[in-house]
Amino acid sequence: MSQLLEANSTISPNRVRKAGDGCVALVLHAHLPYVRHNEQAERLEERWFYEAMTETYLPLLDMFDRLERDRVPYRLTMTLTPTLLAMMDDPLMQLRYDRYLSRSVELAQSEIARTAQQPELQTVADMYAKHWSYLLQRFRDWDRAIIPQFKRHYDAGHLELMTCALTHAFLPFLKHPALAEAQIEYGIREHERHFGVRPDGIWLPECAYVPHLSKLLQQSGIRYFIVDQHALQHAEPIPVNDTFVPIATEDGVYAFPRDAMSSHQVWSSHEGYPGDPDYREYYRDIGYDLGWYDEDEWNYIKPHLLADGARINTGLKYYRITGSNGEKQPYCPEWARARTVDHARHFIHSRIEQLRQAKSNVNGIPIVLCPYDAELFGHWWYEGPQWIEAVFREWNEMQEQGNQTLSFVSPLDYVNAVPNVQQAAMSMSSWGRGGYAEVWLQEKNDWIYKQLHKAEEELLTVLQRHANDWGYSTIRERLANQSIRELMLAAASDWAFILDADTVPSYAIERTNHHLERCRTLLHMLEHGIYNVTELEKFEADTPCFPTLDYRVLLHAVRNEPARASNNHSSTASSSSDHQLMLSSLFAYIRQQLPVAPSYLDANDRNNNTENSAGKKKRILMLAWEFPPLVIGGLSRAVYDLSRYLVKRDCEIHIVTREVPGTPLYEKMDGIHVHRVPLAPSMTEIGFMDWIFQMNASFTICTDALITEGIHFDFIHAHDWLVYLAAQDLKEAYQLPLVVTIHATEHGRNHGAIHTDMQQRIHEMEYELTQKAEHVIVCSQAMKREVERIFDLPPMKVSVIPNGVECVSMNSPAAHNRSSDHTSFPVRNTNTDSIRAFRSTIAKPEDKIIFFIGRLVYEKGVQVLLSSLKLVQERVPNAKLVIAGAGPMASELKRLTAELGLSHCVHFTGFVNDEERDLLFDITDVSVFPSLYEPFGIVALEAMGRGVPIVVSETGGLAEIIDHNHDGYKALCGHTESLAWHITDLLLHPDKAEQFAKQAYRKVTTLYDWDAISLSTRHVYEGVMAQ
Amino acid sequence: MVQPSINNRHYTANQSNIIHLMVQQPTVLFGYWEVSKRLKSLIERHYRSSWHELRRVARLYQYSYSEPDTAPLTYYDADVGNSESWYFRHVAPRHRYALDYGFVNHNQQFVSLLRSALVGTPRNDPDWIVEVRDESSTIQECSQSDSQHQHYAQSNYSPFQQFSTYTLYSDN
């Protein structure tokens, strides 16, 4: 055989090169949906297969044999789709077909007797009886296996065979390219199983192409496929050779255009060959004609109809098409045969003419590709196989007469002979009505896609989640394979097609739902590790097809998907752009990004898992609206520091926060899992509360996806009202305990008064959040008193855990010894050249620098500080104020500075980063935090940790941090004179200031250490878990 | 409210928040969507309004074919009522589209819930080259979206300039 193939591979390209005017490729697409019904032999739909066997597949093989016997060279290309091959290969279908054909023979023989009085009809009955008996004999001679017969002609080099997507799915409508890749690869494997080689060509179901298929085909080793003619006409750039030469896709796969003119000659029922008056009339079958007025006749035909008496085609059709008017005349086989010869000649001469005209405009060898549904030949156009035979016999005669103007080739011959064709990009197209997808997507059938796509999602989710569990359980592998098989059978384009045509819609609906239901049942078994083997066996027995189907192929395809998307920008199948990343596809991204897939075993193992999760390690969902590198207030940093120290205390922290452009959607920062949720930007204006809603909705969807992926949380830790909606939703949905940290209250921010609707709304959310929480954490005693009072919280429900701070010498060797020497003091870099240079940009050498850092909002009290500055300057004229930070009050503060005549001694830096902040601390003589409301005051601690003397206002958390006249000064809150006096005192007494700073540093390193704080937080968690 | 047990936790909530846009032909798109009960109840809680009383809208964004990463050229709104799918007819061939599903808030502003991936409509006119040439002028038509887009890039990722940390400060 290999020698034969070798010979063919040389002959075939020659056939192309030697073509005078060009090439013609006849392509027959043989396909039927999988209509095997295990327990119901009498299904109408199963007869589609039997009828096609009798009228198309067996006659085609017989025709091939005749041509071979007579040494008539022919070259034909066929697709035998995997579903069709599966039925041809199926012993039950073979047996049933044997019975079917036997009964057809019996009926034909009884018809000879019944038509004794009508010799013209009797001749036809005799023709059927002889023909069918002959086919039955051959079928039995072949042990009912016809696939090897096709293979024989393939091996001989006459027949080229293409494959097709496994279940003839309309590939552009599969939601995940991985499913399309699997459909293609499974189709190829089935082809290889039947014919011994991987195919070179594929028939894309319905000739439906979308750009993302190009790469998939190329990766599968496919070298050519067929598209509708207009796909090339709309290609970019427009092909220079019109549609007479194939193009190559961007990945080098050849796309052959269907020739519209020759298609029309064969397809058109009115103008095409099959409409000739001498050909057999398809619509006059005795199954429909007999028994209308005669009971005996009804009793005679009834056994050959469906059990319920429904009329069907028996195959016995006595009439020719005749004419459009008048009574149908009996069929005359000889006349019809003569017409096939006429039509064959017409076809060849039309092609020669077409190629000659094309040749002058085409650079290269023109090819006319004529693809047809195989079942058109024989089944509908009864003489079709004879016509094909006549075409090749006519061509042979022409060649023998020395006329070499035209060559019949397969597309593969052309690919081999013409290694370079123009490259062009095609957009979506199909050969269906309208040229796109309206047959498969319109009001009658659109509902199926949501169902199919949901099943795709479920299938891929379950398969991937269990991807690491395989390899030890045959049952699990069978479940996986069968679930894929069921989904793919549901996705056959045939069902949508039938719904469009409205032929047997109930059957199409039933089949779609039936396979989807089974797919879901199997996935449920896989997911929960509870196997109903009897049910699995029944499903398998009902669909004994595609033994090469292997779930690993699909898994492999899924893993390839992200890489392909990022390499292929022209693909519209999946968008990798951040803004287009759908919320609903978060799911997919998390799966791809998560480094360690949690292991899901079966039911027993799951119980063990539960046991583990009750053990020492806790998994915590942190909801925070800001997280580094997004830093707007103190919350971001506080959540980050707390989380990374909790990680050291056996906590697995998952932060769900919002996306920051330029940072990964998922990353592991210091052991923290950070999930940044993209928020689709609104194209038109929305309100602030709408934005809060969208953010929370996205957080819940993201968390759902995490949980779907098997990341189960022990509880939720939410930070502030901004995540209230998500926190309460997730708490209720998953019955999780909720810990809430209230960093500040709306009540406090507004000095105890709630004025506007917005303030009222925020206050209510804070109230609700603390009510829903199992426990509330605040950062100071002042906050504890505040939240207990305004949110009606019992004292037991509220814990005070201060925020922590990292001190300057933490990383120095001294830090390791600080337990023994708390007096070790950070050395501020005040005298280096770079610091002096930096200082000189802001102040003169003799100036005294007062420093404020914080958001420029009313409650930070900067306006009080500005007023004090005038008083300070009375005794310290060279005092200069540096204000770092940004905020809504910035312009107002600048205006105030000007009004007070302080512009010369006040410097606004704007927003500063951590590094700039530290530099400013280093040149500062005294740092001032004049807040009117301050739940905690983290910046004050940061100043203390940097060795900077500080003055704070006596309010909230600030008041608790400072021990007055020991490690700093507390001025009366909002009191200009008090603030000025204390600042002045420290500026005038640097020794005292340094002593305060040392004491303050010691306090920070002992009381506000993150390690201790994380331990306190862990204790709160344990308390909540114990409730 | 969904109360999943261990056994039905999987593929539940996120599966029911879905949106998908499909190309039927160069001038017709089909979109479908589904919003979970939980998300609907989140909306009802936040907006203090029944889901069915909200005006539900499917918003189709049109993008340039060759530069889909830039701001949309324009958009179309469809009042979809209770429908969970929609045909968008008379769309332009050789463009890219994305679909949002959402609702209109009390201030008549569209609040998006779900956004589809981008799809491209095929060419159907041999004269499409003319269309390419015209594309640069159509981009100008949507200057509002353009400025909106730039605004996001500048404002520290928050659409509200007055928003600072915990609350929304007034402009005064």
Automatic annotation (TrEMBL), chain A:
GO molecular function, one term: 1,4-alpha-glucan branching enzyme activity
Residue ranges of every copy of the Glycoside hydrolase family 57 N-terminal domain listed in the record: 25-417
Recorded superkingdom: Bacteria
Domain Glycosyl transferase family as annotated: residue spans: 839-1002
Active site, renumbered: 206 (nucleophile), 373 (proton donor)
SUPFAM superfamilies, A to Z: Families 57/38 glycoside transferase middle domain, Glycoside hydrolase/deacetylase, UDP-Glycosyltransferase/glycogen phosphorylase
The keyword Glycoprotein is annotated on this UniProt entry: no
Binding site for substrate: 258, 275, 431, 494
Domain named Glycosyltransferase subfamily 4-like N-terminal: residues: 632-806
GO terms under biological process: alpha-glucan biosynthetic process
Entry GO CC: extracellular region
Residues covered by the 1,4-alpha-glucan branching enzyme C-terminal domain: 452-553
Keywords: Carbohydrate metabolism
CDD domains registered for this protein in UniProt: GH57N_AmyC_like, GT4_PimA-like
Record has Transmembrane as a keyword: no
InterPro entries, alphabetized: 57_glycoside_trans_central (IPR037090), BE_C (IPR015293), Branching_enz_MT3115-like (IPR040042), Glyco_hydro/deAcase_b/a-brl (IPR011330), Glyco_hydro_38_N_sf (IPR027291), Glyco_hydro_57/38_cen_sf (IPR028995), Glyco_hydro_57_N (IPR004300), Glyco_trans_1 (IPR001296)
PANTHER family, per database record: 1,4-ALPHA-GLUCAN BRANCHING ENZYME RV3031-RELATED, 1,4-ALPHA-GLUCAN BRANCHING ENZYME TK1436
Similarity section: Belongs to the glycosyl hydrolase 57 family.
Descriptive protein name: DUF1957 domain-containing protein
TrEMBL record, chain B:
Species this protein is from: Paenibacillus agilis
Pfam family name, one: DUF4912
Name the UniProt record assigns to this protein: DUF4912 domain-containing protein
Highest taxon above the source species: Bacteria
